[in-house]
Amino acid sequence: LLAPLRDLAVLRQFHTYLNAEERRLLLRAVTVGAATWCLGYGLTTLAPFVFQQTLNWLASSPKLWGQPVLVFVPLLLGALGVATLASVRASTVRYRDQAGRIRKLIDVEGDGLEQAMALFYTAEPGLEQALLGRQGVEARWQLPTFTMAMRKILAVTLTLGTGGSGGMAAGLTLIGENMASALFKPRRPIPENATDWRTRLRRWWRSTDPDDLQTVQLCGVAAGISTLLGAPLAAAFFATEVMYRRRPIIEKLVYALIASLTAYFLTILVAHNRTRIFHLDIFHMPPFTPAYYISVIVMAIGVASVARYFGQLREHAEQAFRYYTPNLWQRHLLGAAITGSIALITSAFTGYGLELVLGPGDSVINAALNDALPVQIALAALIAKLLATTSTIGSGGSAGLLVPSIFFGMTVAIAVAWLFGFTAATLVVPSITASLVAVVNVPLAATLLTVELFGSLYLLPSLLALVVSLLLSHDNTIYRTQREVDESREIMPGYSVRRIAVPDFWIGRTISQLNVRVRYDV
Question: What is the pTM of this model?
Answer without folding.
Answer: 0.80
